[in-house]
Design goal:
Rossmann fold; six-stranded mixed β-sheet; 10 strands; single chain; about 650 residues; ABC transporter transmembrane region fold; 21 helices; alpha/beta; about 10% strand
């Protein structure tokens, strides 16, 4: 499957319905319809083609049995049949032909259904493989891509693209190819049994029918795309609003959200009405064109009967054959419309598959070998946008088994460090080394397996607590999962729940408190057991009591591990072996907690500001207790301060002295 993936991704170019990309779509899908490693599916494809041809031969035989039955009846009229002629009349007469007519129709239906059933496995296997490839590819795309896209929109792209693939595979093999075969056989029959004039009428009718269908469908493509865009927009707004359910309630914004959703649905309604109206115009035009062609062919045959060149059976034959052609021809119009719409739906999916990941393993990349776990930044430069540098020639080291903390004002580039160590982005300059190995030269999988992360905002899967903890190491036993929970100090809470470890955490873990989610994240990291640990502001959103408990758990996890801490609350990194102070992407101070306080620089000003905030909170709490106020938990004061304000504090202190 990997080989197919690379061929699809490397050779693909964005497919556009405007360029009539059915052929390009089929080229991309062919390896999935005819998979080289699945001989059983190849035999199914070959069997489908044989049954297809047999079904169409039986289909062509149906009008002939109808003609023969009609001629037999016209020849005998209503005159009685002699007893001696009954056997012959039964064998070759109208009864036999009528039975043959019914038999051919049954055979046609049986062969068609057998063909569809045989090909179903091929079609759905192709859908499954392409959907799987698209899903995998979405995970291979960079963090930058996912931060710029909306999850609801991506899921709709995947859903519509999957349905579009099923439509294309099913309609092309089950409808388009059989219709072309049947039309070819009808042309041969008309030349053999009638003359070129009938062929001219049929070919002209089909050509005019398809030209009209093409023009009308091209007109409808823009309407369809507008309808899809409105549908996606409404879906994104619905998902975004429901994910922010609590925020909507906080601000009593239900009506505002409903109005936003309704405006999107109004656009969808207008586009849908246009789509249905245009479909009615298309169907009416197709019916008129075909009816004119049918009428001309039958008039021509009527003249032939008058001249004695044709029989009444021929009149029935041309009618039955044209009516029989109308059904697949009508399907062909539907097939064309559906395929064009499917290609429209699949445009974005192919553009995703053609988009190369921003971060890829280098040629010859080897697995990371972690010994002591030393991390070293050497002149690291990075920018999300070229004209806005985030990190400027950053150099520092996190020694093996030690804890280094990074602090600084908002926007200093702290959280970017963890993303770079995980190699979510490639550097603009410099390099990051782990035990002397450039992380850009090792495989991403081995790099990320060696690192454990406890983020600021832990997002959990909508599954059980056991599932979310086991995510750290999928092959872990239940006993190991529960031991990790115990070390993270969440085992007691879990066992108090009625369902224990099988408790559902809700979407994004919303059924758990912030502290409980953080403990699950810590348990997950403990279970993973990585030699390197990243703590990205892991306690900044918690209250002081919960923060102390989480901090104790984090200290146990980080013991004897190389640990890089991205911190908001400076009280949590007092014991760090080294503290690095970032400001505007550069290291402005570094040292131990007490050494940095003694320098009375940016770190000291941030420390003093946070101490003042803590004292203010304590005073408010005491005042509330003295007055018997019900609110004993005043809102926290922002822990961080802008760089300018942070620098201003020591200046004010100097002025006071």
């Amino acid at each position: 499957m990997t080989a197919h993936h690379h061929r699809l991704r490397d050779d693909s170019s964005p497919v556009s319905a405007d360029r009539g990309a059915l052929l390009a779509t089929l080229v991309h899908l062919w390896p999935y319809i005819w998979p080289s490693e699945r001989r059983d599916l190849k035999w199914r494809v070959l069997g489908t083609l044989v049954l297809l041809l047999a079904a169409k031969l039986a289909t062509i035989a149906v009008p002939f049995t109808f003609k023969w039955a009609t001629d037999a009846l016209a020849g005998h009229g209503t005159a009685p049949v002699a007893a001696s002629d009954w056997l012959m009349w039964a064998i070759a007469g109208p009864v036999a032909m009528t039975v043959a007519y019914g038999g051919m129709r049954i055979l046609t239906a049986a062969l068609t259904q057998l063909r569809d059933g045989l090909f179903a496995k091929v079609a759905m296997h192709a859908v499954r493989r392409v959907a799987y490839r698209t899903f995998v590819h979405m995970h291979e795309l960079s963090l930058r891509f996912h931060l710029e896209r909306k999850t609801g929109g991506l899921t709709r792209v995947l859903e519509r693209g999957r349905n579009a693939i099923e439509t294309i595979v099913r309609l092309v093999i089950v409808q388009l190819v059989p219709t072309v075969v049947e039309f070819s056989l009808i042309v041969v029959v008309l030349i053999w049994h009638f003359d070129w004039r009938y062929v001219g009428i049929v070919v002209a009718t089909v050509a005019l029918y398809m030209l009209y269908t093409y023009q009308a469908t091209e007109w409808r493509i823009a309407i369809r795309r507008k309808m899809n865009d409105s549908d996606t927009d409404a879906n994104v707004k619905a998902i975004d609003s429901l994910l922010n359910y609590e925020t909507v309630k906080y601000f009593s914004a239900e009506q505002r959200e409903a109005s936003r959703y309704d405006r999107s649905m109004e656009r969808y309604e207008d586009a849908s009405v246009q789509a249905y109206t245009s479909l009615a115009v298309l169907n009416a035009g197709q019916a008129v064109i075909f009816t004119i062609g049918l009428g001309l062919a039958m008039v021509l045959c009527a003249f032939g009967i008058q001249r004695g060149a044709n029989t009444v059976g021929d009149f029935v034959l041309i009618n039955a054959m044209m009516i029989q052609l109308y059904q697949p021809l009508n399907f062909m119009g539907m097939v064309y419309r559906e395929i064009k719409q499917a290609v429209t739906d699949i445009e974005i999916m192919f553009s995703l598959l053609s988009r190369r990941p921003e971060v890829i393993d280098k040629s010859g990349a080897k697995p990371l070998r972690v010994g002591s776990g030393t991390i070293r930044f050497e002149n690291v430069a990075f920018a999300y946008e070229p004209d806005r540098p985030i990190l400027k020639n950053l150099s520092f080291e996190v020694p093996a088994g030690k804890t280094v903390a990074v602090v600084g004002p908002s926007g200093a580039g702290k959280s970017t460090l963890s993303r770079l160590i995980y190699r979510f982005y490639d550097l603009s300059g410099g390099r990051i080394l782990i035990d002397g190995q450039d992380i850009s030269m090792v495989t991403q999988k081995s790099l990320r397996q060696a690192i454990g992360m406890v983020p600021q905002d832990t997002v959990l899967f909508n599954d059980t607590i056991r599932y979310n903890i086991r995510y750290g190491r999928w092959e872990a036993s239940d006993a190991e999962v529960e031991e990790a929970a115990r070390l993270a100090q969440i085992d007691g809470f879990i066992r108090l729940s009625p369902k224990g470890y099988e408790t559902e955490v809700g979407e994004r873990g919303l059924k758990l408190s912030g502290g409980e989610k953080q403990r699950v994240a810590i348990a997950r990291t403990i279970l993973k057991g990585p030699p390197i640990l990243l703590l990205d502001e892991a306690t900044s959103a918690l209250d002081s009591h919960t923060e102390k408990e989480i901090q104790d758990a984090l200290e146990r996890v980080s013991a004897n591990r190389t640990t890089l801490v991205i911190a908001h609350r400076l009280s949590t990194i007092v014991g760090a072996d080294e503290i690095i102070v970032l400001d505007q992407g550069e290291i402005v101070e570094r040292g131990t907690h007490y050494g940095l306080l003694a320098r009375n620089g940016l770190y000291a000003s941030m420390w003093n500001r946070q101490r003042e905030a803590e004292e203010a909170r304590e005073k408010l709490a005491r005042a509330g207790e003295d007055k018997g106020a019900p609110n004993r938990n005043p809102p926290p004061v922002e822990d961080e301060i802008p760089a300018a304000a942070a620098i201003a504090l020591p200046m004010q202190a100097d002025a006071a002295e």
